[in-house]
User: Fold this.
Amino acid sequence: MKDMMPSFNLVQPIDVKSAINLLTEAGAGGWAIAGGQDSFDWFKDRIKRPHTVVDLSGIDSIKGIRETDDGGIEIGALTTLTDVEQNPIIKEKYGLLSTASGRVASPQIRNKGTLGGNVSQDARCWYYRSGLDCYRAGGNTCYADTPEGMNREHCLFGASRCVAVTPSDTAVALTTLEANMVIVGPNGERIVPASEYFIGPAIDIERMTVLEPGDVLIAIRIPAKWSGAKFYFEKVADRATWDFPLVNIASAMKVSEGIIEDISITCGAVECVPKRLTVVQDIVRGSAANEETASLAAGAASRGASALNYNHFKIPLMENLVKRAIRG
Ligand SMILES: Cc1cc2nc3c(=O)[nH]c(=O)nc-3n(C[C@H](O)[C@H](O)[C@H](O)COP(=O)(O)OP(=O)(O)OC[C@H]3O[C@@H](n4cnc5c(N)ncnc54)[C@H](O)[C@@H]3O)c2cc1C
Ligand code: SF4
Assistant:
């Protein structure tokens, strides 16, 4: 880590249209920042060197939380994680997201870091973040997927040359809540379900999301569907203080008289994208929320997992988190 960032042109638009124009003009040399908590590491380490940084933090129209006509909520992408965690409506109706936001990093990072930045952050693979020329950085090898590679944090599913995982704690909660991401770019607005916002290396090895150059994520909309459901979020990390997940889990269940009527469940840090556990959903829907169902679900969750040399522990960890989510 070095202290001095290489210089860049800093532009501070106050509306989305200007931000898109500035990013489009800057092309490959442009970089959007929100809270800067992921970006500044790249700049200080002199690994990513944009010539133009477009600071989105002055765009007030994409901050804040409001209820929508359909009974859901809309969260401006520039809303800080602290505001998301502490918002009374989110706490009351979508406690899953409040809990997940409160488990990101440290209070200082949550005060600056935004929800939009959290779901758009880059991979945390040690080799990549050190500036090595791996596949994700445009090279032709993966340093983590070698016999001696340090891969205990890496994936169990969906490897395709790169074995990095999604590091975001809020991504799993938003995927479970079936949120929609509102993106505005040079060609107008599009709405992408959270389950399609995150992309794996087989689709594009150099990006973690569908955001294209010039795109700005303006809001995250959460439908009413899971409002007030029975939620479970748990994150296991090496340290209880600021640390990325080794595995995290987010579930929403509708339980009536002990029977699971409906469920949405997602596991993080086991694949490059939040992993929707659709097989688990199919198995437990209509069953009793008890130990037996939880055990069946746990076994199904890890089916197809392919461990690397040093991350076998993630399989029982994932299974146990699924178990705990189902039995609550
Ligand atoms: C020590 C440390 C510990 C951390 N621990 C965790 C953790 O436990 N869990 C976790 O989930 N994260 C963690 N993080 C990652 C990160 O700090 C947070 O995810 C934070 O929320 C990032 O938000 P930001 O607004 O600061 O992002 P920025 O750095 O501003 O942006 C991140 C990326 O998203 C893009 N971006 C941001 N906003 C938009 C937008 N509106 N439209 C288009 N693109 C956008 C930027 O171009 C950039 O590529 C940690 C970071 C550090 C430094
Ligand atoms: S896991 Fe991905 S990011 Fe890490 S070294 Fe391999 S290709 Fe690079």
